[in-house]
Amino acid sequence: MKNKVCSITFGGIGGQGVLKASEICAWAAMFAGYHVKKSEVHGMSQRGGSVESHVRFGKRVFSPLVPAGGADFLVCFHQEEHPRLQSFLRPDGVDLTGYLEKAEKAVENPRGLNTCLVGVLAAKLPIKEEFWMKAIEAVFKGKGVEENKKVFLDGRKIGES
Amino acid sequence: MAKKNTSNQALLSGNEALVQGAYEAGLSVACAYPGTPSTEILETLAQQFPDVDVQWSVNEKVAFEVSLGAAIAGSRSLFACKHVGLNVAMDPLMTASYTGVLAGFVVVVCDDPGMHSSQNEQDTRWVALYAKLPMLEPASPSEAKEFVQEAFKLSERFDTPVIVRMTTRVSHTKENVSIGQREVPPRPQFERNIPKYVMVPGNAYQRHILVEKRLGLLKAISERSRFNRIERGEGKIGFITSSVSYQYLKENYPEASYLKLGMSYPFPDDKIKAFAKSVKKVFVVEELDPFLEEHIKALGVKVAAKDPSFRIGELTPDLIPAVVAGKTKQEAKSAKRKPRLCPECPHWATFAALKKLDLYVAGDIGCYTLACLPPMSALHSCLCMGAGVTFNEGWRKGAPDNKKIVGVVGDSTFVHSGITGLINAAYNKAKGVILILDNSTTAMTGGQQHPATGLTIRNEPTKKLILEDLCRACGVDHVDVVDPKHLEEFRTILEKRVNEDALSVIIARHPCKLLRR
Fold first, then answer.
1. Residues of B in contact with A64 (CB under 8 A)
2. What is the pLDDT of residue B3?
3. Cβ distance B213 to B205 under 8 Å?
4. Is residue A1 part of a domain?
5. Do B385 and B499 belong together in one domain?
6. B313 in a domain, yes or no?
C-alpha cells in the first residue's frame, strides 16, 4: 500500500446505513493520518433507491469517486446490488460480499449491519483499532457508541475468520 | 504513506467546509430555502453555530433579499441555493450586481450535473457572466473553505456579491479540513446612500458604469489570483479545467500540465494565452456547458474540447479518457434501483384516489413527484416549484372540454410559490381542484421546517401559517381538510369537488413518517 491510494466502494439500498458505514471508515482513515476523500449523494437515500458511497485514502487523493475497476475493496450491503457494484472492483480487489450472510446473522438488530460490515473491512485495512474506536465515537452519539463498538468488534472477528 | 498532523482536523463535506470557512470569516446572517445538494449549508449553520442568525426563508428570492439586506446594513452575509433555486432569486441578483454591498455578501450556488435530485442540469457559470459578478469554483471541500473566505474579502474590496459555485460532487464529498478560529471583522456603519441603493434609471446608469469598471479590476485580480494556478508537468499536454473535473483529470493524467481555474470569472485571458503557448496541445475539460471552451476559442487560442454529447450528465473519472480522445458519449443504461415513495407514505393513498378518478394531474416538486413512476403513473407534469397550481389553470384554458384536471402541490412548495398561482386562479375565475399534499415538512430534502409547521430552522416555536385560512383568504370557493389515509372520506370529498364547477382546495393532511424518526 505504500504511496498508493486505497479505494473502497460501499453500496446498498436506502435505509441500510451505507453512508454511515463509509463515514466511520473515512474518519478512521483521517485519524490514522491519511488524506481522505469520501463521496456520497443525498436526496434519494431515504426513498429506497440505490445508495453508493466511495472512500479513498492515501498520501494525496484527487478524485472522490472510485473509477470502474478501481476499488481495492467492495463492501456490499444487499445481494441484489452486487452485480452492479462488482464493476467497481479491481481484478485483484477484495470482494467482502462473501461475509454479508455471516454479518446479517451476527447482528441482533438489522440496523447494526453497517457497523458490522465496517468491522469486517477493518480486518483487511492497515488502520489501528484505536482509530476505528475514535471514528465510532465521532460518528455515533450516546449509548450508540458502545453498541457500535461491540458490533464493530464482532464484525472484525468475522473478517478475520 | 506519509502521516499528516491530524490535530484540528475534521472530516467535512464541501457544504460543511464552506460553512466552517464562512463562520471563521465572521459570517453573521445566512438565508436559504432547502434544495439538494445545497441543504446542509444552512442545516450545519443552524446546528453548530448558534451565534449566526440563520433562517429557512419562504423561497430563494426572499432568502436572497434578506441576506443581501443584511450585508448592505453591515454584516457579512450568505445566501445559499441549488441551481434552480437561483432562478427564483434572479430578479434581486441581477440588480444586486449594481447596488453592490457594504459588508461581504456571498452567493453560494450548488449545481447538480447528472441530476441526482433535480429537474434540469443548468450550468450556473453563465450567471456570473450574465450578472457581471466574480465567481469562485472550489474543486474540493478544503478549497470550499478557503475560497469562501476569499469571497468575503473580494466582495468587500470590490463592492460586489461574489458567486461561489459548487457542484454535487464538491458539496457532498468529504475531506480532511483544518479548523481555525472565528474572527468577526468590525461592522461598517450602515448609511443611507440613495445613488447606490435606489436603482431608479438615472442612478442605475451610473452604477452600471461602475459595474463595468469593476469587471476590469476583477479581471486583473483573476490574472494574478493564486486560485488560477499553473501546475507544470512533464508531458506536452496541458489541461485547462475547473471544479471537480480537475480531480478526475489528475487521476488519469498525473504527468500533464494544468491551468486550474478556481476564479473562473472574470476569465484570466493573459494567463490562459500564456499557458496555451507553453504546452504543445491544450485541452479544455469542464462539466456541462462549454463555458470555458467558448471563451478560450474566442480568444483565438487553439484548444481541443469535449464532444458536445458530454455536455449532458456529469463527468466521472471513467469518462475522462473518452472525453480527451474526442469520442462521443456512449449512453449506458443504469442498473441503479430507482427511489420510490416510502411504504407508509400518505401520498400513496392520495394518488390511488386520483388514479381511480382517471384525472390529469398537474404535479410539482417534492416526494410526490415520484407518483409519476409505474405502476402508479398518476402524476403528469413536473416543471418547477409552484407549477402544480398554475398548470391546473393553464391546462383548463388550453383544453376547455376537459373537466378532469387537478393540480397537486406540497405544503412547503405551496408556501414557496404555489400561493401566487392560487391567488391568480381565484382572481381570474379559474376552476378546478388544487390538492395541497400536507405532510407537514419539506420531506424530499430531508424534513426541514417551513412557515406552516410553526417551527423555525432551530426548531423554536414561531407564528404558524394556517394553510386553510390562507386559501380561504385567496378567495377559493371551498377548502376541505382531510386525512388521505381515511380512504373513504377522502375519496368522497375528492369526487364531489372534482365534479363541481368551482375552485377548491383540498388539504390532504397526514404527517410524513420520517418526522417520527
1. 140, 169, 173, 175, 244, 247
2. 42
3. no
4. no
5. yes
6. yes
DSSP for B11-37, please give it: EEEHHHHHHHHHHHTT--EEEE---TT
B169 contacts A65? CB cut-off 8 A:
yes
DSSP string, B265-312: ES--HHHHHHHHHHSSEEEEE-SSS-HHHHHHHHTT---EE--GGGGS
Number of domains composing chain B: 3
Quote the pTM value: 0.96
Confirm whether B339 is domain-assigned.
no
How many distinct structural domains can be found in chain A? Answer: 1
Residues from chain A that touch B36, judged by Cβ atoms under 8 A, are 42-43
Q: Is A154 on the interface with B (CB under 8 A)?
A: no
User: B387 to chain A nearest CA, in Å?
Assistant: 21
The CATH number assigned to the domain holding A20 equals: 3.40.920.10
Q: Do A84 and B250 touch (CB under 8 A)?
A: no
Smallest CA-to-CA distance from A131 within A25, A20, A17 is with A25
Q: Is A147 exposed, middle or buried (0-12, 13-18, 19+ CB in 10 A)?
A: middle
- Chain A closest CA to B345's CA: distance in Å? 10
Q: Coil, helix or strand for B102?
A: coil
Which set of grid coordinates corresponds to residue A123? 480486518
Q: For residue B494, what are the domain limits?
A: 346-516
pLDDT in tens, B456-465: 999 999 999 9
Residues of B in contact with A48 (CB under 8 A): 337, 339-340, 342
Interface of A with B in 82-111 (CB under 8 A): 83-84
Asked if A43 lies within 8 A of B316 by C-beta distance, the reply is: no
In a domain, A26, yes or no: yes
List, for residues B234-274, the tens digit of each pLDDT value: 879 999 999 999 999 999 999 999 999 999 999 999 999 99
